[in-house]
Write a structure and sequence with these properties.
This protein is of the alpha/beta class. The chain is built from 7 helices and 10 strands. Strands 1, 2, 3, 4, 5, 6, 7, 8, 9 and 10 form a 10-stranded mixed beta sheet that branches. Helix 2 packs across helix 7. The two termini are about 25 Å apart. The N terminus and C terminus are likely disordered.
């Protein structure tokens, strides 16, 4: 059966995850209302703590009154919810009137323990279970009719695909950025959500892995190559290209009910 994810509002300072911006209202216990730098629309920010399998995971939730869906970010190996790359993409989602939830799939203690062994960040089963718990939490809080997408980077992309296969009735779209979909294993064939794989043209090894993984996907899918970009998309304009591609994919698919994404 599915594990039930519980909510606790964490007392996390605004600056911890809004990177120094000052909210329009005091964040208080339940976050605060700010104004997106990209759209000017009011966005409510909230630091949340989601408990999955007895482990408390921290996340940053952002929604506007007009949010038509929500994108859950699964960070890759060695990264966290404070990743400037994923935050930049998240801001583009907010401009498109989509909510975002950036969360850590490992606790701070687990991250410290994993620095040397690197075992947990490659434990796709563990990461996917925690991601699935966050999906359940979002559905419980906002309703199962909410259009939900997953955005995964590196090993987080594999976890997103496994979670999408496990929650095919809730996940309407998946986007992978520089991901390792090959690590999703047999779950690839069970993914029903339309899936976009974005890879840098200079990231040759990962590009080859994505091409092989794409051939195994039964769901609607597309592989987009950003010319000249490396694994981290640090080249000028590369991350903006990722944001545009992801925005178009989520805009096209988050309006559907997940059941409509099957290949029948």
């Amino acid at each position: 059966g599915r594990q039930v994810a519980m909510l606790a509002v964490a007392a996390v300072p605004w600056q911890t995850w809004k990177e120094g911006r000052t909210p329009m209202a005091d964040s208080g216990r339940n976050g605060g209302a700010g104004r997106s730098s990209l759209s000017g629309a009011p966005v409510a920010y909230e630091a949340v703590r989601i408990t999955v399998g007895g482990v408390a995971l921290d996340g940053d939730l952002a929604r506007s009154p007009h949010s038509g869906g929500i994108v859950l970010f699964a960070h890759g190996s060695g990264s966290s919810r404070h990743s400037p790359r994923n935050r930049r993409v998240a801001e583009h989602r907010q401009r498109a009137h989509l909510g975002t939830l950036l969360m850590d799939l490992l606790t701070a203690d687990e991250e410290q323990l994993d620095l040397r062994s690197r075992e947990l960040r490659f434990d796709i089963g563990l990461l996917a279970r925690r991601l699935a718990g966050a999906i359940d939490w979002l559905a419980a809080r906002f309703g199962r009719e909410l259009g939900m997408g997953l955005f995964g980077a590196s090993t987080g992309a594999a976890a997103a695909l496994v979670a999408a296969a496990q929650r095919s009735d809730q996940v309407a779209a998946v986007v992978s950025r520089g991901g390792r979909p090959d690590l999703a294993g047999p779950a690839l064939e069970r993914v029903l959500a339309p899936t976009l794989l974005i890879v840098g043209g200079a990231d040759t090894n990962v590009l080859a892995l994505n091409r092989r993984a794409a051939a195994r996907l039964a769901a609607e899918h597309r592989l987009e190559v950003v010319p000249g970009a490396g694994h981290l998309f640090e080249e000028p304009g590369a991350l903006d290209a990722v944001a545009r591609l992801a925005a178009a994919w989520f805009a096209a698919h988050l309006g559907r009910r997940p059941a409509d994404t099957s290949m029948g």
